[in-house]
Amino acid sequence: MQAYMTLTRRELGSFFYSWIGYVVIAGAVFLTGLSFVILLDKLQGEATQLPITEIFLSLCFWLILLFSSPIITMRLFAMEKYSGTFETLMTAPVSDLSVVLAKFTAALVFYMVLWVPLLACILILGCFSNGSNLMDAGTLGSTYLGIFLLGALYMSIGCFASSLTRNQIVAAMISFAAGLAFFLASYLSDQLAVEKTWQVETLNSICILEQMKDFARGVVDTRYIVFYLTVSAFFLFLTYRVIESRRWK
Amino acid sequence: MMIEVSNLTKRYAGNTAVSDLSFTVKSGEVVGLLGPNGAGKSTTMRILSCFIPATSGSARVSGLDVFTQADDVRRRIGYMPENNPLHPDMRVREYLRFRARLKGLGRSRTRQRVEAVIAQCGLTDVSKRIIGQLSKGYRQRVGLADALVHEPELIILDEPTIGLDPSQIRVVRQLIKELAQRHTVLISSHILPEVEMTCNRVMIMREGRILAADTPENLEKSMGRSGHIIAEIAAPVEELRACWDQMPEIAHYNIAPAEGEYHRCSLTAAGSEDLRPKIFAAVRQREWKLRELFRLRHSLEDVYIRLTRPESEEESH
């Protein structure tokens, strides 16, 4: 446990030692701010039935998720393998599992930091609107749950990609491709929704686009939660096996 | 027994890095693994530090198996890998603190040990600097400090002085010597004076096997020819010849002119007796001037070169 906490802190710290952390945060803040401006513009024009969070997320969420996840996760294992610190890390008395979990946790926590500005935007909106039902704590909570679950999925994919190689660029490409494939598959299921073949059914059940929309609306479906948690756990398990593989290679 | 290795073999896809290696290291010994690049030194050390497993055979560190009791073994080992990888973005004290916590030290113990190793490795002046901006010598000391921070019983250093300048090498060597008083140390190197000066036992490796293992002195002795004396004396050649011919202890000799009236005599003893006192006595009796008298030693280098020379005489890289 101590090793896990120490490692998580160090990994989290390393986002802020280098420029990468600040660049990613700057990008996310820019996109959040941009969608805030667009949102304000929209709200001034006409009334809308949609919850604020849903409009907000349809603008910036996917861009931030798709681009930040490879950048956040690419260095986790690849850099340690490249610089050789992987050897000092794995010869310290720490278990492979705690290494994998610590790196994943740090990535996920950093990713959640990216979404703090969104909270500020929504609070500002709440302060300056006279309708008291504009800001619903439940909807906000479910939105953040969705952000968290999707983040967990993408970070675990990124962890896995990073553990496969010692080149950070390759790791980023793999996780970006995998993340984009997931996104496009759900986009496809959106387009095909009229037919009811088994392919469409399968695609529908992994349609992260629809699922995220539900979360932003305040709908918390336990099936989605189980889906995200199991898929994330699966990718973390794969990462663990890759890290462990040096023992039987 | 600190390290017990028996019939250790490691194969990487097709080639054998270590083959059927067996050796033991006693507690408190300083042992040097010596060999050309690719001899299997690093592989042996990586197996001992539980980074990679062996293909077959067994290795124990203070009685614990490195495969089945890896966590306990890691706690007892301070390992510095080749090229000493560090996190270049961290500060020295911060890095050592991180490593100490990672190795399971408590908070107050961490504080105490980090300060102790910073002082021990001479890092006090740079403890607030970023590792990436330090010179190689300082980085090497940070690596050493990391290996020491949890007070391991066994310290494994893979090429600790590679890439350092002579004065930095001297500092690191001095540190290793100090470690030897309290820990068991296993060092690898392909530089001879390194192990000759720091180790009390040397194992010479080539192609994954141990070719010779003994103290540096014994290895030297095994080369024979210990009774070879050089003397520089100011005397006429004929008188020198007459003198050496009289002495039955001298098997054969050779006289070459040096500067001025001096002559350089190289003398070979017939037996194992040390000739120097006798030569000095002879010089004094004749009232010659003597400016140099020493026994020619065969350095470990000769042993090393003779043992690691490939049979074909051709180095394959």
Keywords:
heterodimer, A: 249 residues, mainly alpha, globular, B: 317 residues, alpha/beta, six-stranded mixed β-sheet, four-stranded antiparallel β-sheet, 11 helices, 34% helix, disordered C terminus
Largest sheet of chain B: 6 strands, mixed
In percent, how helical is the residue content of chain B?
A: 25-40%
Subunit organisation of the chains: heterodimer
Structural class of chain A: mainly alpha
Overall 3D shape of chain B: elongated
Order of helices and strands of chain B: EEEHEEHEHHHEHEHEEHEHEEHEH
Overall 3D geometry of chain A?
globular
Number of helices of chain B: 11
Total number of β-strand segments of chain B? 14
Rg result of chain A: 19 Å
**Run of helices and strands of chain A:** HHHHHHHHHHHH
Mean pLDDT of chain A: 86
Radius of gyration of chain B: 25 Å
The greatest interface here is: A-B, 24 and 27 residues
Q: How big a fraction of the residues of chain B is strand?
A: 25-35%
Report on the biggest sheet of chain A: none
Structural class of chain B: alpha/beta
Please describe what this structure looks like:
The complex is a heterodimer of chains A (249) and B (317). Chain A has 249 residues and is an all-alpha fold. Chain A contains twelve helices and no strands. In chain A, helix 1 (2-17) packs across helix 2, helix 3 (52-73) runs parallel beside helix 8 and helix 4 runs parallel beside helix 8 (137-164). The longest helix of chain A has 28 residues, at 137-164. Chain A starts with a helix and ends in a 5-residue tail after the last helix. Chain B has 317 residues and is an alpha/beta fold. Chain B is 34% helix and 29% strand. Chain B has eleven helices and 14 strands. In chain B, the strands form three sheets. A six-stranded mixed β-sheet of chain B has the order 6-7-8-3-9-10, sandwiched between helices. Chain B has a four-stranded antiparallel β-sheet with strand order 2-1-4-5, covered by helices on one side. In chain B, a hairpin with a 4-residue loop joins strand 12 (250-257) and strand 13. Chain B starts with a strand and ends in a 9-residue tail after the last helix. The relative contact order of chain B is 0.13. The chains are: A mainly alpha (249), B alpha/beta (317). The interface between A and B is medium-sized, with 24 and 27 residues.
